[in-house]
Amino acid sequence: MKLFNALMGMALISLSLFSCGEPEDIGKYDWKVRSINGAPATKEQLAKLTLEFGEGQEVSGQAPCDQFRGKAVYNKDKVKFSTLYTDTQACEGKIIQNAYLSSLENSEKYTTTADRMVFYDGDGNITVEFQQIN
């Protein structure tokens, strides 16, 4: 019985060591949108939407009508965007653009798995889902 308990203890320690790796650095990748909470967009429209992390907390990307830019701070599982700015061109995709940018600005947490990233608001609701581009 002592041997069994010792082996189980070693197994649990080994498991915890492997599961405590460093969180994924989301800034190393560029992302395309898979879904936006509350936006009635087609897959083709969503596939054109991007998010890129740059140097010094800079973020940018493509929205339906314009490119956007701003700042974001992220660590472990938290993310915080500044107000995101666009050139405000008129187009038919303005509703989707507004939903995308406000969803980013409302995001507070994120998770990553394989080539996916999901942003959540403070209540745990999904705001935006992404797929890794590179």
How would you describe this protein?
- This protein is an alpha+beta fold.
- It has one domain (about 25-130): Lipocalin (Beta Barrel).
- Helices cover about 25% and strands about 35% of the residues.
- The chain has helices at about 1-20, 45, 95-105; strands at about 30-35, 50-55, 60, 65-75, 80, 85, 110-115, 115-120, 125-130.
- Strands 1, 2, 3, 4, 5, 6, 7, 8 and 9 form a nine-stranded antiparallel beta sheet that branches.
- This is META domain-containing protein.
Number of domains: 1
Structure class? alpha+beta
Overall 3D shape: globular
Uncertain residue ranges: 3-22
User: Could you say what the CATH architecture is?
Assistant: Beta Barrel
Per DSSP, the total helix count is 3
Biggest sheet: strands, sense, closure?
9 strands, antiparallel
CATH class: Mainly Beta
Distance between the termini: 50 Å
The total beta strand count reads: 9
Mean pLDDT: 82
Topology as a string of helices (H) and strands (E) = HEHEEEEEHEEE
Computed over alpha carbons, the radius of gyration is 19 Å
The proportion of residues in beta strands is: 35-45%
